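Standup notes
- DV: blocked on the single-chain target, sequence here:
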Amino acid sequence: MKKLYLFITASVLLSCSLILQDNGKIDIPNGANKIVTIPYRIINYQMIKKSLTKSILDEIVEKTSSEAKRTCKYELTYIPISVLVYGSNDTIHASLDYSAESGFGVPQKLTIYSKFKGTSLISTLPPMQ
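- DV (later): unblocked, structure below
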C-alpha cells in the first residue's frame, strides 16, 4: 500500500510539471551555458492553449533565447530575464527581456521579439532597449 501511495504521489507531481499554465518558470541557458530559471507569462492563454503545449513553449523560448544571444556583442554576458508569450490561432509571438553588455562593457536591458508558426521561427525583430 505504501508503494502504491508513493507511486501515485510521484505520478501527480510529475504530471503537474508537464501541464502548461498561463504563468510560471522555465529553465534556459545564459551566455555561459549555465541554466537559469526565468519567469514566463502567457497572454490570452485560453485562446492559444490548444496549439501551445509545454514542449512547444520550451522550444519557442529556447529559439528566442538563441536569437537574443546571437545578437549580443559579447555572448558570455547574455542573461535572460523574463519571457512573454502571446498569439492568436496558430501564430505565436514571444517577447524575451534580457541583459547583455555593450561594446563598452555597459550592461543594457534589451527585448527581442520572435514570431512562430507552430515551432517554426518565422521572423525576429532586432533587439530594442
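- Follow-up: Residues 2-18 form the longest helix (17 residues).
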